[in-house]
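Hi P.,

Sorry for the delay on this. The queue was packed all week, but I finally got your sequence through. Input first:
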Amino acid sequence: MRNRLLPLSLAVFAAACVTINVPELPEEGSSRGPISISADPFNQLIAQIDDRFSDSSFAHAHWGVLIQSLDNGRVWYQRNADRLFMPASNEKIPTTAAALLSLGPDFQFETALCHRGTVTDGTLDGDLVVFGNGDPTLYTRFLDDPRDVFRGWANDLKSQGITHVTGDVIGDDDAFDDEHIGYGWSLDSLAHWYAAEIGALQLNENYVDVRIVPPDTVEGEVELIPNLPSAHFTLVNEIEVVRRGRNRVRFDRAFGTNEIRFTGTVVAGSNAFERSPAITNPTRFYVTVLKEVLEEEGIEIDGEPVDCDDLEEWEHQAEDFPRLATHLSPPLSEIATGLMKRSQNLYAETMVRAMGWQTAGIGSFDAGREEVEEQLAGLGIEPGSHAFLDGSGLTRYNYISPRQIVDILRGMRESRHWEVWRDTLPIAGVDGTIRSRMRGTPAENNVRAKTGTISNVRALSGYVTTADGENLVFSMIVNGYLLPTRAAERIQDDALVMLASFDRRH
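Then the structure:
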């Protein structure tokens, strides 16, 4: 990797643009005014874009930018395009691209409900065993109720004459390894939904949506209503009710426990709102709720919910036992859309492990990373040229360059999965994580791009079409800034509005 700042590269259009000489960009930490160049509209556009990324308020930070034509390959603008940056959730771009290329858009997760024992006169004398390979879709994003699959299984059991189980409900999560969090994830994040644990059996995206309902009067009590009640976790209510002010509620969950403590204040008579704490041990959560639902549906169960890791010498496959029911997830194309538009970390981490399971027989991050690297190599991203340390971008150990992100985006534009890939991306002013950005501008319903945000990092990479119809690909990443995130977003949005507005015909 070069140790100096790259010169500004300008595309030269023989018919429309003249060649201009632009000085090298300043050293990090310095600033300058606008470049003095000719009045050619294209050169003016590039000068204006450069001026935005030279904003003196970001002189302490590091911008990496590459804007390139998809139609002819010419680079319109670059700044530090080959330097490595923390991408935050732009890491989902290589993850999801690799998953579509490796697994295919029609891939479905499969969960099997089996039994070991004998069935006589409506009684299963033995255990129910559920085998999963990572299905993350048992949530309201795909179902009316996360428990709908379990209720369907209850009907399957009763239709086969089973109304009583003498044994346990065992969850087999051995398709994935037992590393349930990503490398380098912050301890401070682990109680929150966006850092939920990963597993082969996943329910409600491995967190709980808790509705917090303030009372009408200061003498009343706050209600905590989980969207999925279960004995697997405990909600501790220490919220104070006040007459005026603002709702300020926090929660914490001690590491390794499922006691979730809510503290802070709510204003009497104010509107209800939600918080979403993550839970630990997703397999135990899954089988606990499964047992509870089966019992609610009239199936008597004598035993307990059990994680297979707690059983000695447990080594089984779904094929070892008679199968009672099977659930298939929606296709990967639909899951990838939820992954990218909401920037769902759990889905991204699941994809890496699913690739490992599919190609190497073990759903580990390391096995999945090998497959990611192989798929990226096919897009021109060589192993060892970037740091892929988790699938979601939650860790600060990931590093990738704007040029590498553009290479992936360009490769997916040329792939057989282009339409599926395009439809996964958030649309400016319309949906996903950029639904409130660039509204009322030519970039609205034009820019399709993935965001990325962790502390002191803001990224945006994707596609934009100019007013005269040229298709562009871009990556814009800033690291090390201390200003509000909206300040970084304004620079990115301004550049994209300029590009979307550009028209050589006028």
